[in-house]
Amino acid sequence: MSWEDYLARGEYGEYIDGSFYPRMVTGEHQDVVQALYVLLAGTGHRVFATWGWRPTSARRKHEPDLMVIDREHAGRVDRRSQYWDGPVALLVEVLSPSNESKDWVRNMRDYAALGCPEYWIVSPWGRAVHVFGLVDGAYELDEVITGVRELPRWGLAVDTDVLL
């Protein structure tokens, strides 16, 4: 499938290597995404849920559960577009049984290659937030949050008992 064919579908989902992957989530998954959205929206950055990210150089479009765009780029956001093509500050994926390996392997590899500086993988059943930082083109685990943890770089506290 070509990029143009994908856009003509008008459906939400990811476009990876010429294939369309529809979005499949549960209510539990959406509850966690919503709680994280509220938390991150308080940072003053632009936060988008399930909106596409396709950097100009990429031949694929991902739909992370949450995408955080720095304040300095917020004015470039075209809300009529199906995706954001600029830099991101943070991408967040909430695990579901159907997507766990995709988030741990493919998305981690792709997001690092595309230069996203920080990536969170949230495990509802593990009751943890795994925070990764980009180092020399690959992600390194910075910390695993269980309980309450202050994240000064974001100006917020993550409380897994509240989020999960």
Automatic annotation (TrEMBL):
<dbReference type="InterPro" id="IPR011335">
    <property type="entry name" value="Restrct_endonuc-II-like"/>
</dbReference>
<feature type="domain" description="Putative restriction endonuclease">
    <location>
        <begin position="11"/>
        <end position="149"/>
    </location>
</feature>
<dbReference type="InterPro" id="IPR012296">
    <property type="entry name" value="Nuclease_put_TT1808"/>
</dbReference>
<protein>
    <recommendedName>
        <fullName>Putative restriction endonuclease domain-containing protein</fullName>
    </recommendedName>
</protein>
<dbReference type="Pfam" id="PF05685">
    <property type="entry name" value="Uma2"/>
</dbReference>
<dbReference type="InterPro" id="IPR008538">
    <property type="entry name" value="Uma2"/>
</dbReference>
